């Protein structure tokens, strides 16, 4: 075989920050601290502190490949960890503090974290967990000396700024195999223990380039993009936005830990944020607050959404503020699973038709191969009609879980088992119908809980909606619609069913509607269908009651 004659230069995440230090040195990183203050720094200063952090990890005796955990929110100090840890050849393990204590202990021990970096918000949690953590040797508070606690139950708690002050920053990022582990993110573990997804430097760099491309945030015309990750840094590394921003020279705005809508709005407006990314529940909370206060988004132009499908009502609300919501499909196992771009030739579609397209979960991403299969693993056509279990292959898709825990990530042919049910049309539009475990199986047919939820949210009295399958003596399962009303609004179950009656097939209509004060949420900001099914496991549908009478 004739080899190409290009240089064999490894794809490493440290090169993203090196590029920013050299060519975007003075561009700001604006961050809210855990205490609520807004601090300003630059990519040059981020690089200097990341190098000192790498030296400090050397001094602590952490070898390449060893894991460094973080229990922290979206702050400047957490950003430095993305480069100081991974750039030096260690493995960054971003941990979700919203998980249950038992899950946190499991994943920290399973990852074998040798050092654990925490902030003031997670300090009490780590004090609680520490006695059960078998591998952690160093606890580091991400704070200056004056913010260190007078007393703590953590043995030998170190101060991040003191560690960095002891180093000179004269450090060259090492070169190593691009297939080396860069970071680890664990799934939320809604069933069984969380599973570890290990990203390589190669996969992280490739997916960063793809995210940058489909978001269209290069500076072709010299515009200054301002990016704000609402997705926490422990959610698939904030969808790689902490890598994207320095690569393209975008100002990066980090909201800290306070996600109250008034504080988010304050940052978005004050810093001129042009693009922000977060799950639909975050956008719902923000737009509801905007409605209540009469405030407007003046500079935000793009909202990126993933994790679960946004409703049409949410898209229309954001469009009313001049914000286009771009939906893409992805998961911990495959960041950048689809592109959020519109198909070529659709730029001049009327607004309503653009929203129709945006309601789909993005389009086929170059580099990702898709297939849908039936229950017997037979491949189905990508005709926009057939619905099946979604499988993907990509250079940045997981092929296994860390230590093999949680079973196989792929099927017999090496395709990632996503757990999603979807259809794909000939133009590559991906339409997620449901999670495999959430789709409602009624009389041998499938009903999409996602579609019913999105339609229900179009009613002006509905703030949030979820649909689950409830046992039925004849049809196996039938849909139950669970609704949170908007404050001060009134609507009955019969009115909601009537509202849906001309929007879906008659046999899709919910058999019953239940009203609740709040929906249970997972640690990743999605509705917990598992908790809802448990709550309503003994619910008897009206039709089922009549049959039993």
Notes on the protein architecture:
This protein has 549 residues and is of the alpha/beta class. Among the domains are: 14-204, ANL, N-terminal domain (Rossmann fold), CATH 3.40.50.12780; 369-435, Luciferase, domain 3, CATH 2.30.38; 440-548, 2-Layer Sandwich (GMP Synthetase, Chain A, domain 3), CATH 3.30.300. The chain is 29% helix and 22% strand. The chain starts with 13 loop residues before the first helix and ends with a helix.
Number of strands: 24
Main β-sheet, spatial strand arrangement: 2-1-11-10-12-13-14
Instruction: Determine the strand fraction and express it as a percent band.
Output: 15-25%
Radius of gyration over all CA atoms, rounded? 24 Å
- Indicate the low-confidence ranges by residue numbers: none
Q: Note the gap between the termini.
A: 75 Å
CATH class of the domain at 14-204: Alpha Beta
CATH level 3 topology of the domain at 14-204: Rossmann fold
Biggest beta-sheet profile: 7 strands, mixed
Annotated CATH architecture of the domain at 14-204: 3-Layer(aba) Sandwich
Report the CATH superfamily of the domain at 14-204.
ANL, N-terminal domain
Average residue pLDDT = 91
- How many helices? The count is 17
Structural classification = alpha/beta
Q: What shape does the CA trace take? A: globular
Helix content: 25-40%
């Amino acid at each position: 075989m004739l080899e190409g004659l290009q240089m064999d230069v490894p794809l490493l995440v440290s090169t993203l920050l090196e590029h920013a230090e050299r060519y975007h040195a003075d561009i700001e990183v604006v961050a809210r601290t855990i205490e609520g203050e807004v601090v300003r720094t630059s990519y040059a200063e981020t690089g200097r502190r990341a190098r000192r952090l790498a030296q400090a990890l050397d001094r602590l005796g952490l070898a390449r490949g060893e894991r460094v955990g973080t229990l922290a929110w979206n702050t400047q100090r957490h950003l430095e960890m993305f480069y100081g840890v991974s750039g030096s050849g260690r493995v960054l393990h971003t941990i979700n503090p919203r998980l249950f204590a038992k899950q946190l202990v499991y994943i920290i021990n399973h990852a074998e974290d040798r050092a654990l970096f925490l902030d003031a918000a997670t300090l009490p949690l780590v004090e609680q967990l520490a006695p059960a953590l078998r591998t952690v040797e160093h606890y580091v508070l991400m704070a200056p000396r004056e913010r260190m606690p007078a007393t703590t139950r953590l043995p030998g708690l170190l101060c991040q700024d003191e560690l960095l002050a002891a180093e000179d920053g004269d450090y060259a990022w090492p070169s190593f195999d691009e297939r080396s582990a860069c970071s680890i993110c664990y799934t939320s573990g809604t069933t069984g223990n969380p599973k570890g997804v290990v990203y390589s430097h190669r996969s992280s760099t490739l997916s960063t380039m793809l995210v940058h491309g489909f978001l269209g945030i290069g500076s072709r015309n010299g515009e200054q993009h301002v990016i704000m990750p609402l997705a926490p840094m422990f959610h698939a590394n904030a969808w790689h936005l902490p890598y994207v921003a320095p690569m393209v020279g975008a100002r990066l705005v980090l909201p800290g830990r306070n996600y109250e809508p008034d504080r988010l709005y304050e940052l978005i407006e004050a810093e001129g944020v042009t693009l922000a990314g977060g799950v639909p529940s975050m956008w719902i909370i923000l737009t509801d607050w905007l409605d209540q206060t009469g405030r407007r988004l003046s500079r935000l132009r793009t909202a990126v959404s993933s994790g679960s499908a946004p409703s049409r009502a949410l898209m229309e609300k954001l469009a009313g503020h001049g914000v286009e919501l771009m939906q893409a499909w992805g998961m911990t196992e495959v960041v950048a699973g689809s592109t959020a771009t519109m198909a070529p030739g659709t730029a001049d579609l009327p607004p309503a038709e653009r929203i129709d397209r945006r309601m789909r979960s993005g389009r086929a991403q170059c580099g990702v191969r898709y297939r849908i299969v039936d229950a017997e693993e037979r491949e189905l056509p990508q005709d926009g009609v057939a619905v099946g279990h979604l499988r993907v292959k990509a250079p940045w898709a997981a092929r296994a879980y860390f230590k093999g825990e949680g079973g196989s990530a792929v099927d017999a042919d090496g395709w990632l088992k996503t757990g999603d049910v979807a259809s794909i049309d000939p133009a590559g539009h991906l339409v997620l119908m449901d999670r495999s475990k959430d789709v409602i199986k009624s009389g041998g047919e499938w009903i999409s809980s996602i579609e019913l939820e999105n339609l229900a949210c179009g009613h002006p009295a509905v703030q949030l909606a979820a649909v689950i399958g409830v046992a039925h003596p004849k049809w196996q399962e039938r849909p139950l619609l669970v609704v949170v009303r908007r404050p001060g609004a009134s609507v009955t179950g019969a009115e909601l069913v009537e509202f849906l009656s001309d929007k879906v097939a008659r046999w899709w209509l919910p058999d019953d509607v239940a009203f609740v004060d709040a929906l249970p949420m997972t640690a990743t900001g999605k509705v917990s269908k598992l908790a809802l099914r448990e709550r309503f496991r003994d619910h008897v549908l009206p039709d089922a009651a009549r049959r039993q009478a």
